[in-house]
Amino acid sequence: MVTQDGLAAEWSDLKGTAHMKDQTIAIHAGYTTEPTMHAVAVPIYQTVAYEFDNAQHGADLFNLAVPGNIYSRIMNPTCDVLEQRVAALEGGLAGLTVSAGSAAIHYAIINLAAAGDNIVSVPQLCGGTYTLFAHMLPKLGIEVRFAENDSAAALEKRIDSRTKAIFLETIGNPAGNIVDLEAIAAMAKRRGIATIADNTVATPALLKPIQYGIDIVVHSATKYMGGHGTTLVGVIVDAGKFPWTEHQARYPMFNQPEASYHGVVYAQAFGAAAYIGRARTVPQRNTGSALSPFNAFQILQGIETLPLRMERHCTNTLAVAKHLQKHAKVEWVSYAGLEGHAHHALARKYMGGYASGILTFGVRGGFDAGVKFYDALKLFKRLVNIGDAKSLACHPASTTHRQLSESEQRAVGVAPESIRLSVGIEHIDDILADLDQALAAA
Ligand SMILES: *Cc1c(COP(=O)(O)O)cnc(C)c1O
């Protein structure tokens, strides 16, 4: 079995950059020039399988007795660099890449909950996550209990002996709420429950949830990490700190022999890496939402400029928020970077006042004026995505959150007239000019 020491050695690259700053980690973590061809850029290992030296080597690999690659549904050297890089940026122990953010969330949950269990979630969620939680997981027997709001007290009220995790988005998409991570992590620790944070909107360039006690971080790297709207990728990062063995009754998956992987007891065999080890060898190995190495390469390229881009996304978005706030045709603006916002103090506490690149606002005149504004946009793209270098606009009520009833929409933070902007990194003058001409048309 791979011991904790063995794993630590395997992840020495990650440790080599651990003392460095984000801007350096984003460019170097997880890769040292490979020894055969001396490629400086991360090679794309477009292969399904890896040849065994002999039968014994194959058996040793399958027993996890030696490190090495077997089959790209479970691991791939290009994806491995991305896993190490994101884990390093988040300050976690290890990561797992999957084919999309949605798959990361699905696996993060089924890796610790089964039929009869429940998880407790904040209500402010991205549309796809809400649908997974409200309609799909219950069909698998996993109940998702939505708290009344995103406070630790509201989440705690819904916990019982079958609660396996608390789920939150660090910055809600599109609600823009910023959760009090420290308070929620402290409550969850007291109750012996693991916390899962979707850090897609904030990105580790602005906020590292693990620093505040969160156990598992999930990402749609499709968004800011990739940064160019080309590639779907999901990542799970394990802080490696949750004491699974202290909570045997709540977490049998890490403390009982795993029948689907020749009886391994994850907490014993993988130590601190029990959660991520199981995520790879149970959900990923058996259901196969594997990441293409080419897509991993694309996201690695994006991450190199993540800290730089996030700075510009934040300053451009604050300028847009201030501009819209003063505009006669705008009814309301919601952006936690604004001093008057209810969550501005949390933006200060967790992100130095930054609040990422998503803002929502309402055009005066309600739904119809909103649609006129939306249709008049020229630079902003009308689509359902966020985190692109390009400025994007979406009307959640008719698209991302269309499957939700109006009361469900309001609960997740979407009003009928809400327009969600994902402000890009174009010149601010051109961004504001496009918004002004579209508002004039509304
Ligand atoms: C887009 C998004 C997801 C889903 O990610 P995909 O990569 O599109 O599957 C999950 N969470 C948040 C916050 C998102 O914005």
Strand and helix layout:
Elements: H1 4-10, H2 12-18, H3 22-28, H4 55-62, H5 77-90, E1 94-98, H6 101-110, E2 118-121, H7 127-136, E3 143-146, H8 152-157, E4 163-169, H9 181-191, E5 194-198, H10 203-206, E6 216-220, E7 234-238, H11 252-255, H12 266-269, H13 274-287, H14 293-304, H15 306-326, E8 330-334, H16 344-351, E9 358-363, H17 366-376, E10 381-382, E11 392-394, H18 406-412, E12 418-422, H19 428-441
Parallel strand pairs: 2-3, 2-4, 4-5, 5-6, 10-11
Antiparallel strand pairs: 1-7, 6-7, 8-9, 9-12, 11-12
Helix pairs in contact: 2-5, 3-5, 3-14, 5-14, 17-19
The structure holds pyridoxal-5'-phosphate.
Pyridoxal-5'-phosphate binds at residues 100-102, 126, 128-129, 169, 173, 198, 200-201, 220, 222-223, 232, 234, 386.
Question: How do you describe this structure in short?
Answer:
With about 450 residues, this protein is an alpha/beta fold. The chain has helices at about 5-10, 10-20, 20-30, 55-60, 75-90, 100-110, 125-135, 150-155, 180-190, 205, 250-255, 265-270, 275-285, 295-305, 305-325, 345-350, 365-375, 405-410, 430-440; strands spanning about 95-100, 120, 145, 165-170, 195-200, 215-220, 235-240, 330-335, 360-365, 380, 390-395, 420.
